[in-house]
Design brief:
By secondary structure, the protein is mostly helical. It is built from seven helices and no strands. The chain has one domain. Helix 1 (2-31) packs antiparallel against helix 7 (126-141) and helix 4 (67-82) runs antiparallel to helix 5 (84-108). It is elongated and about 55 Å long.
Length: 142
C-alpha cells in the first residue's frame, strides 16, 4: 500500500507543482515581480485564475477529492502500520505544508488590491485557461 501511495503521490505532486509553477509564471509574466507584498487582491481582477490557483493550492495540501489526498492518505496509512512516530512526523509535515501554502494564497489571491498594477491585470487567455483546465481535470479525476 505504501508503494502504491508513493507512486500516486509522485505523479500527483508533479502535476500539482507544475500547475502551481504555471500559476506563478502567469502572475510574473503580467507583473514582473517576485515580491509577495506586491500582490494581493488578485481575485478581484483575475477571478478565473484565482479559482485555479486556490484549487491547486488546496490540492497541494491534500484536500480530499483531489489527487493530492489519495497519495498522501495511502502513504500515511502505510506509515502508521510501519511506525507510529514516522507517521506522526509525516502528518506534522502535512500540517506545515498546508500552513505555508494557505499563507501564500491568502496574501496573493485574497485581501485588498495590493497596488495599481494588480488592479489592471487581465484574466487568463484561452491558452492559459486550456492548460490549467486540463491540469485541474486530471487533479480532480485521479
Amino acid at each position: 500500500m505504501g508503494m502504491d501511495g508513493a507512486m500516486v503521490q509522485m505523479v500527483s505532486h508533479g502535476l500539482i507543482s507544475g500547475a502551481l509553477f504555471l500559476c506563478v509564471g502567469v502572475l510574473y509574466d503580467r507583473m514582473h515581480t517576485r515580491q509577495i507584498a506586491d500582490y494581493g487582491g488578485v481575485v478581484n481582477t483575475m477571478p478565473v485564475f484565482a479559482g485555479f490557483m486556490v484549487l491547486f493550492a488546496l490540492a497541494n495540501t491534500g484536500l480530499p477529492g483531489t489527487s493530492g489526498f489519495v497519495g498522501e492518505f495511502l502513504v500515511i496509512l502505510a506509515s502508521f502500520k510501519a511506525n507510529f512516530w514516522y507517521a506522526a512526523l509525516a502528518a506534522l509535515t502535512l500540517i506545515l505544508a498546508a500552513g505555508y501554502t494557505l499563507w501564500l494564497v491568502k496574501r496573493v489571491v485574497f485581501g485588498p488590491v495590493g497596488n495599481e498594477r494588480v488592479a489592471k491585470l487581465k484574466d487568463l487567455n484561452g491558452r492559459e485557461f486550456l492548460i490549467l483546465g486540463a491540469l485541474a481535470a486530471v487533479v480532480l479525476l485521479v
